Amino acid sequence: MNRLSWLHAWLMLLPALAMLLAFTHIPTLTTVWHSLFFPERGGAPAEFAGLDNYRMMLDDTVFWQALSNNLWYALGTVPTSIALALAMALWVNSKISGRTALRLAYFTPTMLPMIAVANIWLFFYSPEIGLFNKVLALFGHPGINWLGDSDWALPSLMLMTVWKEAGFFMIFYLAALQSLSRDLYDAAALEGAGRWHTFRRLTWPLLMPTTLFVLVNAILNAFKLVDHLFILTKGGPNNASNLLLYYIYENAFSFFDSNYAATLTVVMLALLILLALLQFGVLERRIHYR
């Protein structure tokens, strides 16, 4: 490559690199730097704290509660959303009548704004007039305080998230299914392979690149939920539904402790990087790109 081509290539990359530096790398480094200071108090300048903010975090019971909630939330929503999305994609990809309307019905929750979704489900979960308790009343059940009970608040958020995200992930699986060669399935049919055997030995391995993409996005979504919490529970009751990003939001904008919020952000970023490395390390060897 001559110098002119080399220069042209870097000039083409420059806008993307500038955006990446301005909105990703520089804010990340700034966050790490702020996590090493105590916040300003009474007009006094910020004092260097070293790792004291991280030590304080280790003693913070709310942090551990939010982290535990987030891990359970991810464990409950990610596999369920992916499995449901795949099942829906297989169904609407088959030769059934009205499949276009069915695809639209599955994808509709994805098109709704998050605040609108939270308000819809707030009506569903209302203790006295909510849809779910009205249905339970038909069977003689007194009803459940879905968002006010510590045992039900987090599962209620999980159910809403699965409803919101499964249709979005279905689109990727549907596109992947439609790109698979029919010759492979014709060959499997000639060999006498049944539906389950064809799915397990043919469809599922060929969908692994899509599954990796969906898995990464699902885990990222599980750790960036704020909108729904702000409308539905605000992390309550007694932090039973508090998640890590919402706790960061609380510290930054409710408690005005941006330095501790930066500390929590660094931990969340480290956790997401670790999960991403684990996903790519485990799944990459099982992916067939061709």
UniProtKB/TrEMBL annotation:
Gene Ontology CC annotations of this record: plasma membrane
GO BP, sorted A to Z: transmembrane transport
Superkingdom: Bacteria
Annotated compartments: Cell membrane
InterPro entries: ABC_transporter_permease (IPR051393), MetI-like (IPR000515), MetI-like_sf (IPR035906)
Major location (coarse): membrane
Topology within the bilayer: Multi-pass membrane protein
Domain ABC transmembrane type-1 residue range list: 67-279
UniProt key word Transport: yes
Keyword field contains Cell membrane: yes
Keywords: Cell membrane, Membrane, Transmembrane, Transmembrane helix, Transport
Record Pfam families: BPD_transp_1
Membrane-crossing residue ranges in chain numbering: 71-92, 104-124, 152-175, 202-223, 260-283
Family per similarity comment: Belongs to the binding-protein-dependent transport system permease family.
Stated name of the protein: Carbohydrate ABC transporter membrane protein 1, CUT1 family
Species annotation: Marinobacterium stanieri
